[in-house]
Inverse folding.
């Protein structure tokens, strides 16, 4: 009975966390891209534009809900529903930390530890292509149909190198459970270098990781692979005919898929919740140091403000950072927060890379895009797999 | 700790319910709160201001079917790799040789379709190739 209660509480926490991060990921991305391009980004709604996501949701909520003439009504509704619901399910298998004891209750920091976790994750994320394909076909618009076709062909093509790149770290860990993968990457070489799969001997997965991340960009339809929404030729691709929150749901699905693929990469290649260096050597104080430094920087800029209102907002931000730094010193919550911190830090760095790439690179041409995956990524992923297999078979313990 | 089969999969069920509730809530929210002013011109599919001609569900390039078929063939092969990876440390070189033979055969097929031009998206001999 307690198990079910704990599961329900955890599920509620997970859902709140993922919905909040989806809301603010958009804001963070707009800020990051703005700063890369020497702009300010959203800055009108609330201090530093912090209320912008809420304003966007309200606006889209009150917009007219249009259905184009000749659309297949049921499939037209089903497409955004599938996109969002399938994008939210994979969080269930992500391991945010080991088994911990909180206030006398032993629980693991994952919702479900399936013995087929990797397969489950791949299966659910690849079902996402139905949302895209149905949206394009159902809305009775030529742009939408072309966008959906391109998008589905692209997503299934990049799924192949991705699926093969995933197998190589599995050869090192010999398990399909994500928590098992995380545990297999514990320990350090020479006391300092983490045994994550990117560094793991006898076959460091550097190429596997790069292949996985490139496919991740394409799977989530992100720049430089955002052909489905090439606005100069296809208006908005598969969601041309969608308005109001139905339109927003495709974006929400895209961001949720982005989080999933970054988190999956973290589990497969970057040791999930394992700290960067051993806890015995003080990695447990890193979050306090990091948030403390961030607080100091914010405080400095608050005292030397670039704009008058920064005099108030930045010290408040600094206080929030100091508060976070202090929370990481409370002994009761440390065992829960530390693994989650490392997981979020790693996945967050990958998410930042996604945004950075979007601000930097132009778009591929469609034939280049398809040739790249079939003629380059797929063979390279195969070679990487065979090389890993040989190294593990000969040198593995 | 979960021990039985239903206990292991109970969180998955909960998550599916939450995900469906969020998705359904989004659709219902904009359906009830958005304003509704309909007219036939507004409901036309967008085509840059021109009245659309014919159905949008037209025939499209056979390339897309080809990609779909090739994907299914190779994806089945990729799925074979997963159980192989899990028991790899027990079988070692034996497993490696077996899988190398299998992958070799599959790659023969891959290079055949490559030479047949199934993976080319620009026309043969065009400067774009």
């Amino acid at each position: 009975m307690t198990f079910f209660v704990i599961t329900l509480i955890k599920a509620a926490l997970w859902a709140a966390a993922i919905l909040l991060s989806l809301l603010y990921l958009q804001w963070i991305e707009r800020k990051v891209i703005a700063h890369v391009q020497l702009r300010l980004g959203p800055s009108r709604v609330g201090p530093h534009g912090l209320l912008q996501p809420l304003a966007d949701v309200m606006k889209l909520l009150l917009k007219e809900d249009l259905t184009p003439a000749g659309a297949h009504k049921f499939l037209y509704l089903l497409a955004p529903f599938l996109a969002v619901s399938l994008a939210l399910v994979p969080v269930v298998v992500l391991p945010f930390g080991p088994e911990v004891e909180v206030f006398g209750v032993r629980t693991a920091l994952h919702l479900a530890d399936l013995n087929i976790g990797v397969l489950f994750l791949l299966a659910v994320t690849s079902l996402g292509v139905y949302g895209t394909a149905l949206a394009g076909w159902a809305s009775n618009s030529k742009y939408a149909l072309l966008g959906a076709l391109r998008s589905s062909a692209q997503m299934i093509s990049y799924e192949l190198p991705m699926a093969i790149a995933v197998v190589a770290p599995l050869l090192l860990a010999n398990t399909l459970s994500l928590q098992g993968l995380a545990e297999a990457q514990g320990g350090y070489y020479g006391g300092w270098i983490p045994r994550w799969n990117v560094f793991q001997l006898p076959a460091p997965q550097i190429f596997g990781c790069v292949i996985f991340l490139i496919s991740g960009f394409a799977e989530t339809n992100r720049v430089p692979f955002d052909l489905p929404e090439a606005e100069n030729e296809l208006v908005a691709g598969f969601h041309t005919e969608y308005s109001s929150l139905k339109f927003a749901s495709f974006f929400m699905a895209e961001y949720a898929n982005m989080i999933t693929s970054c988190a999956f990469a973290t589990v497969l290649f970057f040791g999930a919740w394992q700290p960067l260096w051993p806890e015995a050597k003080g990695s447990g104080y890193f979050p306090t140091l990091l948030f403390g430094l961030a607080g100091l920087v914010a405080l400095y800029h608050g005292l030397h403000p670039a704009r008058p209102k920064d005099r108030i907002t930045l010290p408040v931000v600094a206080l929030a950072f100091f508060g976070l730094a202090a929370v990481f010193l409370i002994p009761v919550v440390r065992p829960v927060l530390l693994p989650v911190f490392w997981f979020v830090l790693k996945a967050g760095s990958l998410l930042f890379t996604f945004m950075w790439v979007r601000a930097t690179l132009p778009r591929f041409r469609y034939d280049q895009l398809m040739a790249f995956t079939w003629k380059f990524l797929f063979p390279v992923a195969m070679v990487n797999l065979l090389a890993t297999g040989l190294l593990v078979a000969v040198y593995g313990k | 700790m979960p021990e039985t089969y239903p206990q292991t999969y109970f969180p998955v069920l909960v998550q599916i319910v939450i995900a469906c509730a969020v998705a359904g809530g989004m659709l219902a929210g904009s359906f009830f709160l958005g304003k509704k002013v309909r007219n036939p011109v507004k409901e036309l599919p967008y085509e840059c201001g021109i009245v659309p001609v014919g159905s949008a569900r037209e025939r499209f390039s056979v390339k897309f079917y080809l990609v779909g078929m090739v994907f299914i063939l190779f994806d089945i092969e990729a799925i074979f790799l997963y159980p192989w990876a899990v028991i790899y440390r027990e079988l070692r070189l034996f497993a490696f040789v077996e899988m190398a033979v299998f992958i070799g055969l599959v790659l023969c097929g891959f290079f055949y379709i490559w030479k047949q031009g199934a993976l080319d998206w620009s026309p043969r001999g065009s400067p774009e190739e």
